[in-house]
Amino acid sequence: MQYTTLGKTGLVVSRLMLGTMTFGEGTSYGFDHPVNQERANNMVSQALEAGINFFDTANNYGEGRAEEYLGRALGSQRSNVIIATKLGARTGPALTDAGLSYRHVIASTEASLKRLGTDYIDLLQLHVPDPLTPFEETARALDHLIQRGLVRYVGYSNLNDWQAATFLATQRQHGYAPFVSAQMYYSLLGRDIEYGVVPFLRYEGLGLLVWSPLAGGFLSGKYSRELTSESSGRLASFDYLSILSIDREKGYTVIERLREIAAAHGEATPAQIALAWLLTKPVISSVILGASTPEQFADNINASNLCLSPEEVASLDSLTEPKPLYPYRWRASGGDSVVRQALNIS
């Protein structure tokens, strides 16, 4: 297993982490949760045996059951691992069952602690933006939780670059505990965050946690131009192709290249190559692996053992290069061309 620190903190984390969105049984908010407690126990044991010490969940996964299953599965191992959970998305029918108000942040965290069966959460993340709540109010709530010892670090998920930058400035202005990480969608078929988010993370030293690294399972290798039916897996229960703006035709081309590279690595799979490509990106602290079966999870874990050649990485970079987007790509290097040449800056 590969390890790194979470952003510029001293917290050592595995570069692969187990995601629990599949935990909980049944369907909620349009997502299937096929993993019961027994299977969750097996997958958590697999993760620990592979050297994974980082686990991601959320208070709305499986209507809260994902946190419960994870807590039970970890049991006595809890003190040896890092638990990250999220809040802010809807968890019930009441008007107050969503958002990032002071009230909801405190109440949600206390509820998550009970479901997880723990005294503290290592990384508490804002799940979604809340346009109604001032940043200062949410930042104050997060800092209060840290001061109480209920939370160790705070991060965010799915904020755009200006929201994250403004929120971080608010935290610093008031002396509150700042963000240390961002959890964002990133894959070979979804590199939008390279425009503004990634440069922001590098500048601030925040760690990147990647969700849906296989584009909702599309890059698993199960699909091709000849086999287009998404009758099983995540694509069967949720329209990831539309939500993640996946270009299906481009996706098939990428899958073909993944198969070619996988063949050059013996027993490797397209999914492993797609994950190994992400692990070449220094800004990424950890990649979240979500799986429905122990077999699928075991296959994905093996990506940590792959070492892609510079040529293979470059070919995937070139094949999936994002289209220019103003103003991010406008004279991307910045500065004067004559001065850049004199200083040998590309």
UniProtKB/TrEMBL annotation:
GO cellular component labels: cytosol
Gene3D superfamilies per UniProt: NADP-dependent oxidoreductase domain (3.20.20.100)
Residue ranges constituting the NADP-dependent oxidoreductase domain according to the UniProt record: 15-320
Keyword tags: Oxidoreductase
GO molecular function: oxidoreductase activity
SUPFAM superfamilies: NAD(P)-linked oxidoreductase (SSF51430)
Top-level taxon in the UniProt lineage: Bacteria
Classification via InterPro entries: AKR, AKR_Detox_Biosynth, NAD(P)_OxRdtase_dom_sf, NADP_OxRdtase_dom
PANTHER family associated with the record: NADH-SPECIFIC METHYLGLYOXAL REDUCTASE-RELATED, OXIDOREDUCTASE
UniProt-recorded name of the protein: Oxidoreductase
Organism, as annotated: Ktedonospora formicarum
Lineage of the species this protein comes from: Bacteria, Bacillati, Chloroflexota, Ktedonobacteria, Ktedonobacterales
